Amino acid sequence: MLGLALIVTALLSLASGATDSSAFAVGYAYFTGQQGSLSLVERVVITDIRAPRTLLGILIGASLAVSGAIMQGLFRNPLADPGIVGVQAGAGLGAVTFIVLGTSILSPVSAFLGIYHVPFAAFLGGLATTFLLYRLSTSNGVTSVATMLLAGIALSAMAGAITGLLVFVADDQQLRDLTFWGLGSLAGATWTKVAVTAPIILPITVLAPMLARGLNAMALGEANAGHLGVQIQPFKRVAIIAVAAATGASVAASGGIGFVGIVVPHLIRISIGPDHRYLLPASALAGAIMLLLADAIARQIVSPAELPIGIVTAFIGAPFFLGILLRRRSLLDI
Amino acid sequence: MLRTQSVTVELGRQAIVRDINFDAPAGQITAIVGPNGSGKTTLLRALVGELKYGGSIEMNGQQVREMSAQALATRRAVLAQSTSLAFPFKVYEIVRLGLTAGASISLDADDVITEALACVGLAGFAGRLYAQLSGGEKQRVQLARVLVQVWQPVFEDEPRFLFLDEPISNLDVANQVQVLNTAYSFAANGGAVIAVLHDLTLTAAYANQVALMRSGSLVSAGSPEDVFDEPTLEEVYGCPMLLRCEDGEWTISPRVRPPRLQGD
User: Fold this and answer.
1) ipTM of the assembly?
2) Which partner from A21, A168, A217, B41 sits 20 to 30 angstroms from B241, CA to CA?
3) B87: closest chain A residue by CA
4) What is the pTM of this model?
């Protein structure tokens, strides 16, 4: 079901944009191998602009939703999300550090890492934030939701402040890059970005179900999960690294796009239940669909210009987040 | 057989449990009793491999601190005092978590889950939402989960262990008896049950072995007849006690008779 929906949305995504070509024509042309039936402009637009954008959208949407689901399982809370609790901000700080300083002070490092230097920096930033967050909000295996959310605010603010400082010293070209990137957008999608992002996000998304057994056991609390044979410390380490790497790669490619990681797993839990064996793959598919749809809206609503996608997901996600918060207010009384 | 020798447990730098020696044989129920704060739960957490300990704890001849999480999970299951659940799981999904511990993977999952739920008196509850159950039902679902974890011995001639931490403290009398009967049949089928209990009457009725603790140390260990007598219990609990045993039927309770309050 979800797989089919993803194919349809991907075709829609390929077909929508400032130049018009119908989804049907695009689908027909590509499935029958008769690309010749499309005009040259259509072909260039589709293969060089829209195809990487669609692929990047699929990768990032899947990554946002899966890292949200893993983090919620780990923190045992449906409100834990890399965007909300500051992991995206931390990853952003890492990325900005290299965008601004990568050509000067840090140039040996960025030369060494090549095209991966920004994703790697974002990964380190995300990893540091996730680790700090877990240490701050968890004692004796019990995670305090209130502490987690408040620590997330503090970490976000801290990362934001340092990011602000870096932006202050950035030159004009860097500023343009940063603004574009900071709002969260798929507009800068290129085949290079897809090539950098896919090797990080694809394995994490595909292998995430290997964490399912541990995450299911964690729902009973850390001690019970340990009694069930989960090696708690290594397990948590792997889960945190997976979240940080996926968040780092997606933040590096498209900036911080919020709320997909909260909305998607929550909807999946309502429709098929909380078992992570199904939740993780279903979230990956649904996350890809949601981000492609949001991107389509971002492109159509003010066409031929476009909105940053982060604005669209925030408009959908923020009320949703408040909705969960209101219904689960008791969770915060800790 | 679970064998403890000079077991000491420190939390922070304070010794919470000191010099514990007792055996919990297979085919029997061993109860750990004592006042609040006497170190019962801390001792249990060390016995199941959760806390570091000094001295020796041997499970079927193997030192517990040297066993991996997986090796422990296939030999023993632990029922916590209370379990908080994240996310809206259904009853059978909770019970199934015991199955994925690796011990009983060859068994037919649905059969075992159904049978375990029947064991704890919850036949027909499989599809219910855990969050909507009563406290007693929740505790019995968790019991079914830990039963499933050690449903069959994985290794021949190696008894399985069931650790219960105050399994009946929040339950009504019918639920208390139901849970203890389940533990009894587990022991009767060759398993070893080690339970922290507060109810002394039920302890005397069900337990073969009793370890009585006070402020981190063992006062005495042995059969209920050996361990329980009025002077000892009065000294350990610091309150007058009533102890009776007629035809094997025990009653142990605080001796209280406050004058009736008259009110206005």
Assistant:
1) 0.90
2) B41
3) A274
4) 0.87
